[in-house]
Design goal:
Chain lengths: 333, 685
Amino acid sequence: MKEQNPGTEDGTFSPVQGQSLFVVNEGSFGSGNSSLSCYDAVSQTVTNGVFSMANGVPLGDTGQSMTIHGDNGWVVVNNSKIIFAVGLSDMKEKGRITGLTSPRNIAFVSDTKAYVTDLYDTKITIVNPQTYQVTGWIETEASTEQMIISDGYMYVNCWSYGTEILKIDLASDAIVKRIKVGIQPCSMALDSQNRLWVLTDGGGWEGNPAGYESPGMSRIDLSTGEVDAEWKFDDYTSVSDLTVSHDGNTLYWLRSGVCKMDINATDLPSEPLIPNSSGQTFYSLTVSPSDGDIYVGDAIDYSQNGKVYRYSADGTLKSEFSVGICPGAFCWY
Amino acid sequence: MCIRNIVFWSVLKPWAAVIMTLLPAFVAYAAVPDADTASVCIDAASVYGSRPLIAAGMHRTPFDSLALKENISLSFADILSYNSSVFVKQYGRATQSTVSFRGTSASHTQVLWNGMKLNSPMLGMTDFSMIPAFLTDSAELLHGSSSLQAVSGGLGGAVLLHTEPRKEDGFSMQFVQGFGSFLTVDDFLRLDYGHKRFHASLRAVFSYSPNRFRYTNMDKKENVYDDEMNIISSYHPVEYNENGKFRDYHILFESGYETEAGDRFSLSVWHLGSYRQLPKLTVDYSDPGDFINEQNEVTTRAVASWRRSFGNLDLSAHAGYANTDFRYDYAFDAGNGNWSQMTHSRSRTHTVFLKGGVLWRFADRWIFRADIAAHHYIVRSEEDVSRQGYDISRTDADLFVSLSWKPVERVGLSLSVREEVAGKRVSLPVPVFNADFLAWKAAGLYLKCSASRNYRYPTLNDMYFLPGGNPDLRPETGFSYDAGWSFSKKWKTVSLSAEGAWFDSRIKDWILWLPYGPRKNFYTPLNLLEVHAYGVEQKADFSWKPAGEWQLRFGGNFTWSPSRNISGTGLKGDTSAGKQLVYVPEYSSSVMASLAFRSWKLLYKWCWYSTRYVMSSNESGPSGSVPPYFMNDLTLSRGLDFRWADISLSLAVKNLFNESYVTVLSRPMPGINFEFFIGITPKWK
């Protein structure tokens, strides 16, 4: 595995489209040492600190997510309360969105409209990506997390102390439906049959204001907007990071390792495809859109550089590479 | 940290270590053997040569009046930074200041105020920025296993703080007004009254500052856009330290009374109120007006004591109570004048303290000592938004028994046992052995050593915090030993003292908090690490009176304290094994020099810390470590003696060379800043 060292200001890093995987490293909360890594899945090289290399300043505190729209990557830095737009040709900053409370994710409705979810603010912020200005808000009455667009609607999970999936009309920016699921829907995935899968973490501890139950999975038929199937896990083992293969036919998530399930399966898998029995701290998950390889972020002790393990679709370890502190999110380019 | 200092220190560092190691030996060699006793005292200086049997083999650092009173606005965190081998982690005035003593963590330093623990029962640590030096009359450090003579759980050591009213009869008053940079205001008032066997004292401290200093933010760039929102240039902005305001007050009342029969009663009551904002990170891009991020603390402590000597028998009893109401608020502007709470945390802690002690010189050269102490804690902690917290009470008690023996004049031996109870848990007896040997009587040179086991029980947060608290945690256990020497000598105009020690400590079941739960959104403590902390402490003091009205003083500390995580976490891919602990410098040093002439005094202070790692894997670079830095302070003061009052004038300059530096990642620090003090002490008689 080849690894490159982070460069200095005015470095010349340029990711290759179609084979690059960005890794958003959260850093240590309150330390301002979040970073962005980029892995070339073909040459199997990783470049760490690509944001600071190109811009001469650190990414900030608690990088949260990254989304690509047009020629730009949009990096949400939660505790810096900022979203950086960076040019994908050179990773240099193109602009920034501020005026946010605790941003988590950005999703693009059009070239002139994007939604930003927020952990603490019970509003989705509407921004204009061309002017980097806040143009409005959608009152949600709940914390909001991930966003998925389907058929003119944005689906948003209310994770922190929430129990709902919001359906928002992209034209009117109005919430048209609230779909009740289990406690704390932490992540979502849209399958090839236009069904929205929702992973609920169950609250995590007794006394959670939202309640406490075993984690579960809900499936929402988007043609009706109703939950058409639900499963509960056998115990309270934590779950996270539901994702779907590029063809939309296979689901993956983290629960004592990497779990895998066909979208037509009737039961949840009893054993993980990739168990983390060897003492790993699996923290994030993505599946390659090109070859179906599974990438798992390992935070280790959360205060040293993390690792990313690359597995084939059948769960065979192919390689591993080091990234920044606490690799928490991925973005394919 | 400027380049010139890096280059300078890279050359200086090895020599500094050699000089600090060899200087005391040279001093011992050069000493003139004219004293017939080893109990030599130095004017207003630390007493190293004096070695009462009860302190046999102990490694201790007393703080003298110069250290405690040189700048009236100092907190005890500042005192430790410049006068000891302790590393203080802080990021500016009136911000949380915790210590690392002998390479251990903040909760491994026990702090006693008039015998009662100041450590938070919730967190285990003490915030030294909440202790004004003005309220402390005497203090000392007990290093490593020596701390077991006072308290258990001090795997790094202990800090003992004492207050006492002045013993003079009549009424006296002292008032000091300070004005400083960043609109800082400090007020200090002391009233004393004494009549025959009764003495009382009232002290008050008030400190306020917006603390809004300017600095160039190298962690940000401001963009300049054209009309089409293209960035055409960028620059590092000059910003203010936003949200850094503080407003603290302290009131300390003391009284003492001694009966004709010899009973000595004393009462100390300390009330403090603190409002502090939490400054923004350098990488925070929000508008400070959009957020509230602040803490409020109100604490009242009181200790009543009784002491009595019956010939060879000394008895004492203490009772105390402390109450802390702590509030933390983190909120954002939700519009229309409404603030929406992100964190709304409240905790109330009650502590009841009882202690009894006996010291019996039951035979020539023999001393028996026993203490029994108990702290009962009642804690209610709640966070309204997430409903986290707990409500619990626990009683911690310990019994200490010690036997000291001087078999021959030059040798002191002490064997002690401390037994601790935390809630329903009972520790194994903790043995402590101390010994010292007067190797060179004329020079006052002592050799000494000590060895002990020690425990630190998990804090209440460790065990009971919901979510994440782990009631199955084991106590951290350590085995420590040290060996060292001390020397003290006084000539007609020159005083010299020095002390050095090698220490070695292995701590098992070191508690580490790791993310846990769904999305890892809360933490849980685990007994994960084994830590090996060892190193060398060197200290030297020099005082010279070349002429009647001149006095020169010099004091220096040097510490080398590797503190290695030798076990790692056991997690796959972990590279922390063998690495220095986070935010513990391997090297640190401080120097204090003063020159006094008549009523003038010039005081120069310097300290240096090596790289502190932010990452457990000890990565270098801006994300993984904080660069070494020097800090220089200077104080010029003068006293004016009028018939009606003594007037004192003082100008303190901090960060003398306007260094750009940080002590904690992403926390800005002020450049050169000033504070002027004027004090008045009326002459009532």
